[in-house]
Amino acid sequence: MSTIDNKAYAKIVENGVQAVETVQELHSAGYAAEHIYVLAHDQDRSDRIAEAADAGHIGLKEEGVFTAIANLFRSRGDELRAKIISLGFTESEARFYEKELDLGRVLVIAKRTA
């Protein structure tokens, strides 16, 4: 995976197996597990893939308190877009990725820390 640099990285994959492979490639490229995130439209699927891949979870640190609380009352689509935005993506990018998740795909995001 030669195109990985210090910027945020996002990749849409077709299924959990490809997500696990992508996470493993990111680990090999130097990304720490706590800075790799896996999102699927279904929360349980996200959790299962993240656990199998040794990826982190988007939480208070990434989202902030207000977004995390607001997500308790949002639809899953709104929650996913808010999580994606909290990782540094634009609203239009978040809408694009969320539509891909609606189609059953999986989003792998990685961020390097300074």
TrEMBL record:
Residues 11-104 form the General stress protein 17M-like domain. It comes from the Bacteria. It holds the Pfam family YflT. InterPro entries: GSP17M-like_dom. This is General stress protein. It comes from Paenibacillus faecis.
